[in-house]
Write a structure and sequence with these properties.
With 352 residues, the chain is of the alpha+beta class. It folds into three domains: 78 residues, no CATH class; 122 residues, no CATH class; 87 residues, no CATH class. 40% of the residues lie in helices and 27% in strands. The chain contains ten helices and 14 strands. The chain is elongated and about 100 Å long. The chain starts with a helix and ends with a strand. The N terminus and C terminus are likely disordered.
Amino acid sequence: MKNAVIENRVEKELNEWLVREQRFQKLFSFSVDRNRAFLREKLRYYRTLQAKYKARAGPKEQLTLRMMREEQRAIEKQLYPNLWIRLGYKVLSGIVQGASADREQKRQAAHIQDLKESFRKLGFPEVPLDRQKLRDHQKMMIPVAYEVGENQRMAFELNLEKGDKGQFHLVGYTAYLQREGNTPLTVKQHFEINKENIITAKQAYNLLSGRPVMTGTKENRHWVQLDINDRDSSFNYCIRRFYTGYGFDLEKKLRELPLKELRTPEETRKLIKALQNGEQKEVTFIQGNKQQRIVLEVNPRFKSLNLFNQKGEKVSLPQALKDKVSRKTGLRKGKRLQKGLPGKDRIRVRRK
């Protein structure tokens, strides 16, 4: 019987009305089933249910709707004993119901657009939404997936819940980073959505790739990073958080490096924003007429920046500075020119 109530949506909503009716009966001394104001409200509620489920009712719900129509007729006769007045009421209520249905349809369309806009702001691609499912369910899970690089794929399960006003909101999502190849690997993490800490799809990819991102608003801005060596009771990776008081200043650390990308405020802002999103950024070290391409990523835990060469190998700052190459001569530090044989090019030898 319990399962039948859950399956029959019309019966479920009628039960909600019955609870309200019983509560009113306790509050007031008069009989609610004889009160005209209450009966008119009950009739409006029945008409709303008829319009809501008429076109998509299952067999059990169709039977409930037929029985509800019988009770509607009985209430109409009680309210409007005169046949002509009753017919006029039906015509007028039909017009009102049609206008109400149009408004509801427009509201649903606007709601779907708002949902899609919220997905877009979080960096998700176009998400298909079924209007009927949005009407019929209190909770929904929508899958989304796309390629992020060679042998890499991101998949998401978007969790939607209906609020008090009947509109769905994204309350969280589970992100999966899938790597193919000789050693396939899938890592996942569930992220809650709230106004204080919002993780975008791009940031989720960077977090699952092992890099930190900055989240939060105003004074709550801080770095977060997944601890791949520790999980909680829900099998999510534990999260390390590094707030302002921890002492890591990204811009200050960048200013310690001879970066070409710090020449203008706009370039500086772009670089900082990319690193805050957890991206690896290729930058140019400059010293005089020498330059070297280096890849940077943030390491707030150790209040530093990680540096990588073009082969993806981690290097120290002294190594990066030592390997700078002159664009004019192609010479490296610690080397000089020595004359070769006639007709031959000079060769580089180390100074003894």
